[in-house]
Amino acid sequence: MQKNDKIILEITATSSEGSGIGRYEGLAVFVPQAAVGDTLKVKILKVKSNCAYGKVEQIIEPSPLRIEPDCQVFSKCGGCVYRHISYDAELQIKQQKVEDALRRIGGVDMSPQPIVSDGVCSGYRNKAQYPVAQDGSVGFFATHSHRIIPCDSCGLQPEEFSLIAKIFSFWMMTSGNKPYLEETGRGLVRHLYIRKAVATGEIMVCLVINGDRVVAADRLVQDLRAELGDSLKTVVLNVNKKKTNVILSDECKNLYGDGYIYDILCGVKIRISPLSFYQVNHDMAERLYSKAAEYAAPEGKTLLDLYCGAGTIGLSMAERAERVIGVEIIPEAIKDAEFNAAQNGIANTEFICGDAAEAAAELAKRNIKPQTVIVDPPRKGCSAELLHTIAHDFAPDTLVYVSCDPATLARDVKILNELNYEIKEYTPFDLFPRTSHVETVARLERRG
Ligand code: SAH
Fold first, then answer.
1. Residue 129 CA neighbour count, 13 Å, CB half
2. In ligand 1, which atom is closest to the CA atom of 327?
3. pTM
4. Over residues 107-122, mean pLDDT
5. Beta carbons within 10 angstroms of residue 200's beta carbon
């Protein structure tokens, strides 16, 4: 097999990134937007020693799972991977992805609970970060690339976001502010970043700029207020002059409002700043946190909430717990967490800003003994050092692991198994319909 070959391929599996997989001359061939059961004519784009990559040239026999994609940029945009199959088929793939990871990597001999979904596949996101193209339009990056695919009305975003994107692009085209160009590091406006508090309707608009100010800021604020009315709570500049693909810097300046929006999650009022992590699917996050609470059984316990962001998980259980300690590395998120505890009249919490592993070691020195530990790390999972501190120094009865990457969850479950923690139950949650991502919450118990 060589580059540019055209082959006939039957798709028999799905990769964890959502590509179809077929076997040809003993080699796995990965094909995006292919479905199990397809027979395809595939053009080979790249051949490596252990696999090959291709793209669909023609559908010879469509899979029964197929549906007509309802997005014009699906074939180019790097966001969604499952717009060509039914949502039921997608849920099954995600259920299987979690199970496969836990069995193969984690050595877990147990199936997950049925994947939880509210069936809402459009408009579910509360956050968008659009790169700005050279003509002032916005879009999304293509798969594995920083080429901008123009798109101001994404089906995953709330309707207001496309209105904001249009107002912003018109302003870019008429205000004299230059879009940033990644290759040269020149130009000013890098990203349009929007957040919405779903329960209150409050909206935050943030411009990420390679400079200290924009011209005609007042007109942008006026135009946004004219369309959005009172739901526009704040407009913020984020000053990012670094030549990096990290979107946000830690420097924010308010153009309008106080830089915050307020949401309600699991009955707790949550202040969100531009820099704090906040789950992008509000309604499904509530379900995820309810399951985490069921697994944590916080009644009367000291709860340690590691990787706590704005404190959301711990605060949702604080009323039932004896005491909650949260740890998070981003200072603004810790300020939000402290503010959130105070504004909800929750007095049994303490938040620590620092690396989870280091803070855990400090807490162990203070002789803190949480009965339940919750971890909710980023995709790379927990460090082995942190898992050792949890198992040896805290030795909680229960460990609840909230994960956005089944592979690192599985790796950590395996380590924890050796540290005397046995997985008892795990449940996948579809917080990101149409994309390849899936969340999982797992309950582990100390043996003996
Ligand atoms: N539990 C929160 C946030 C989860 S996202 C929620 O549900 O909203 C993961 C969080 O871990 C982010 O807020 C990120 O800033 C934080 N984080 C990343 N690396 C960290 C580290 N080494 N130590 C502590 N927190 C970290």
1. 13
2. 24
3. 0.96
4. 98
5. 15
